[in-house]
Backbone:
């Protein structure tokens, strides 16, 4: 490890903090928004239990937690991710271009 | 291929070609094993991988062979997208790969930065530009995971950097 390495690590730490401040909010969860192909297809309070099918992904909202139960993509990363509960968290399915986020 | 001896401009350095081909295949098999065993950090963020094949490119960069590093990296990305990926995964890895290789090549010019620093910077820029490409595809919502991706990129980069340093010290394998 040389001097330059520590400078790079310092820059990375600053970048983490700045990006956290810019993109993540720490308030309580309020709304669940599901976007498909960049269009909003679902926008409801998180307190309302629901099951929403985008045609490719089956999204379940129950007891303040949101998760993807089924997906048509082959790797199924969005299903493996499990439940999200906090504001600013999101589930992204790149192959199907679906974003589930809590705002 | 059949250039006459002495005609330097047309001569292909066969040894070098074989070594690059070998390195590309090492990258591919390491990447495949990573996928298979998911040594990645998929339990933290799905899709995050250690990126061991980047250590191979890093070794070339640290030896000053920028041309070789570019060749190996671009060929690796194209081949792994053809073999294991999709058009979207190709877009993500090429945008991350090109920018991170450029950053790595630039940083080796600074004497005070070791392989570890180069690797961390390259891994972080790789993740950032991959995320930017993803935000073009699916929208700005993906930026929410940027702090986590930057931090994980730094950890994975440090690991690859240490690995590359260890390998670089074994001078016996670098007769080429």
Residues:
């Amino acid at each position: 490890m040389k001097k330059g390495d520590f400078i790079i690590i310092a820059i990375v730490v600053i970048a983490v903090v700045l990006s956290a401040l810019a993109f993540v909010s720490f308030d309580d969860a309020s709304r669940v928004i599901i976007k498909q192909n960049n269009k909003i297809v679902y926008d409801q309070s998180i307190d309302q239990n629901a099951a929403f099918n985008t045609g490719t992904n089956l999204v379940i909202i129950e007891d303040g937690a949101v998760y993807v139960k089924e997906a048509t993509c082959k790797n199924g990363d969005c299903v493996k991710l499990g439940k999200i509960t906090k504001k600013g968290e999101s589930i992204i399915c790149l192959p199907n271009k679906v974003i589930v986020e809590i705002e | 291929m059949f250039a006459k001896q002495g005609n330097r401009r047309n001569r292909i350095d066969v040894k070098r070609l074989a070594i690059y081909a070998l390195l590309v295949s090492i990258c591919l098999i390491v990447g495949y094993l990573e996928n298979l065993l998911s040594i990645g950090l998929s339990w933290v963020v799905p899709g995050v991988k250690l990126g061991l094949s980047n250590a191979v490119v890093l070794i070339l960069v640290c030896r000053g062979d920028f041309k070789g590093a570019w060749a190996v990296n671009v060929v690796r990305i194209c081949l792994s997208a053809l073999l294991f990926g999709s058009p979207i995964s190709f877009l993500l890895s090429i945008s991350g790969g090109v920018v991170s290789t450029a950053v790595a090549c630039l940083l080796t010019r600074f004497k005070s930065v070791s392989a570890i620093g180069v690797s961390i910077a390259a891994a972080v820029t790789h993740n950032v530009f991959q995320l930017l490409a993803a935000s073009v595809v699916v929208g700005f919502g993906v930026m929410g995971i940027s702090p986590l991706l930057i931090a994980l990129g730094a950890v994975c980069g440090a690991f690859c950097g240490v690995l590359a340093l260890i390998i670089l010290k074994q001078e016996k394998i670098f007769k080429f």
User: Anything to note?
Assistant: The helical segments of chain A are 3-23, 77-80. Chain A has one domain: 28-102.
